[in-house]
Amino acid sequence: MLVLLLLVMIASLISYVILKEPRSKRPTFTTVKKYESRLLPSDLRYLYDALTSRGYYVSCEIKEKRSDIPLALEPFRIALIPRDKGIIKNTWLTVYLNMKGWKTILFSSPSSEKQLDEIIAEIEGYHPTSMNDMKKVQ
């Protein structure tokens, strides 16, 4: 009985996240912090450096009430989360951030240009405006 109740709660939470109409937020300005990239582990540092060299402004260690986002594109509320935290924690974090208005991209540490290009293609699929408008904001 308890298992059935738990499954119903999970199904309703997932259907809420899927059926919830996304809020379109306009890009906002973010504070630039020069020191934050030095604090990253090597796999996140590689992704951070690759994204910043391509014109993105990437924020590190964003606090979102009950969770920490290791890398994020704050103006567009895109969270970049490594897959190394486990299936349950990643699923919980994805659902929680989606409810808070974030779009999440789960990635394994990019070791090749192809994997990096896949992450960037996913980012470009999420942001609401053209690439030129995004660079103007940053």
Automatic annotation (TrEMBL):
It comes from the Bacteria. This is Uncharacterized protein. It comes from Salipaludibacillus keqinensis.
